[in-house]
Amino acid sequence: MVSAAHEQSGIQTLVKHAVKARQLSRREHLRLTSAMLSDPGMPATDRFHINRLLDYVRAGKVNLID
């Protein structure tokens, strides 16, 4: 089983990569939204980064790809 601390660092890495590449796969999008909805104890910093990325997707700054 993957530890929670390892998973959170993976989320931050994923967000940083997606913002830099200006692309987010639908699988990564699902992973991030599922993590936010399923983990009420997620650190506020991780929630902030995910919300920022989702805002970029809505604004068209980051594209969803298949």
Description:
This protein is mostly helical and 66 residues long. The protein is built from three helices and two strands. It has helices spanning 4-21, 26-38, 44-59; strands spanning 23-25, 63-65. Strands 1-2 form a two-stranded parallel ribbon. Helix 1 runs parallel beside helix 3. The radius of gyration is 11 Å and the shape is globular. The model has no long low-confidence stretch (mean pLDDT 88).
**Over all CA atoms, what is the radius of gyration?**
11 Å
Number of strands: 2
* Low-confidence regions: none
Give the CA-CA distance, first to last residue.
28 Å
Sheet having the most strands: 2 strands, parallel
Strand arrangement across the biggest beta sheet:
1-2
Order of helices and strands: HEHHE
Strand content: 5-15%
Q: What is the overall pLDDT average?
A: 88
| Helix content class | over 70%
Structural class: mainly alpha
Count of DSSP H/I helices: 3
Shape: globular
